[in-house]
Specification:
- The protein is mainly beta.
- It is 11% helix and 44% strand.
- Strands 15, 17, 18, 20, 21 and 22 form a six-stranded mixed β-sheet that branches. Strands 1, 2, 3, 4 and 7 form a five-stranded antiparallel β-sheet that branches. Strands 8, 9, 10, 11 and 12 form a five-stranded mixed β-sheet that branches.
- The radius of gyration is 28 Å and the shape is elongated.
- The relative contact order is 0.11.
Length: 320
């Protein structure tokens, strides 16, 4: 078993002997490798090992497993593996095996790894079904898949029944528990299709003015002279083709937005003459329409200050 982790698929490894001693034992990090980890994850019904690090989920606790595992990686259970003949009497403090296996959840048959039929592996891959599945449950599944938030969920009826994993409690899923902890064996002719947002990268935002030249706008703000030309630029690392940028502006008295298509993954919003009304906070929101849905991602905020003249700006900067 894995203890002190966030789910059945992560934690500090403990082993229960089949022999006389029936207590759980910690395992020393030095006696454990990647092949051993693959066997443990398989035995627990989890996905492949993703993190193997000593002391990640607490230090060694007595009693301690005394032999080194020598798994080939294909065994179905850890205690089926060969082990060293000699006992180990000591283990460095803080070097208990800490293991994280990936959750055995996937979306198949869609346009990306973050869209398709929801399937869960507990011994075998089966579709997941729930009579009242909604966007809240779908959001939990998308999160477990590292696919952002849920965009849509639809239920599809098939002609014949087949084995499924049936969600026994919607509350279980919404609480953040792993799907495998909320599912029981069943059969159904329904399947669930999910579309997740697939984490978009965060856009960049920068500003430049005709006085200062091009300069990256820092978190503390950007100053321009009244009447000068300034440009706010939005850009994003290539991830999907096309899309558009929306420049959002908010101040104490107003809120506006401007939209331009993304050209070479960027857009430039030109303001010919800076006025006090331009003073406020700006952010870039990138929108892209893929997989029949509109996804978006927002940049950090920057603040723009409009100074009356050169002396006023210098004075304000000096006070800041």
């Amino acid at each position: 078993r894995l203890v002190n982790g966030t789910s059945l698929c992560s934690g500090r490894l403990e082993v229960k002997s089949n022999q006389f001693n029936q207590s759980w034992s910690s395992v020393c990090d030095a006696d454990f490798d990647q092949q051993d980890a693959e066997v443990v994850c398989r035995e627990l019904g989890c996905g492949a090992p993703s993190v193997l690090q000593g002391a990640l989920y607490g230090e060694v606790e007595d009693p301690m497993w005394t032999k080194e595992f020598q798994c080939g990686g294909t065994e179905s259970a850890l205690l089926d593996c060969r082990s060293s003949g000699s006992d180990r009497n000591t283990c460095s403090p803080g070097k208990a095996v800490g293991l994280t296996c990936s959750e055995s959840v996937r979306l198949v048959g869609g346009d990306s790894r973050c869209a398709g039929t929801l399937e869960l592996k507990q011994g075998e891959w089966r579709p997941v079904i729930d009579s009242v599945w909604n966007l809240k449950e779908a959001a939990a599944a998308c999160s477990q898949l590292d696919c952002g938030s849920a965009v849509s969920v639809e239920r599809r009826e098939e002609t014949s029944r087949r084995p499924v994993w049936r969600i026994i409690s919607s509350d279980c899923v919404q609480s953040g528990s792993a799907l495998r902890e909320c599912a029981a064996s069943g059969s159904s002719n329904s399947i669930l299709n999910l579309t997740c947002s697939d984490l978009l990268l965060q856009p960049n935002i920068s500003a430049s003015s005709s006085v200062d030249g091009v300069s990256e706008a820092h978190q503390q703000g950007f100053h321009v002279l009244r009447g000068s030309t300034f440009t706010i630029s939005c850009s994003i690392q290539p991830q999907y083709p096309g899309g558009s940028f929306q420049l959002n502006f908010t101040s104490s008295t107003s809120a506006l937005n401007y939209t331009q298509p993304a050209v070479n993954h960027s857009a430039h919003f030109l303001f010919p003459a800076a006025e006090p009304a331009h003073q406020g906070r700006y952010s870039c929101v990138y929108h892209v329409y893929v997989f029949s849905h509109d996804f978006f991602s927002e940049s950090r905020l920057i603040s723009l200050t409009v100074a009356g003249h050169q002396g006023a700006e210098a004075e304000q900067t000096g006070e800041g």
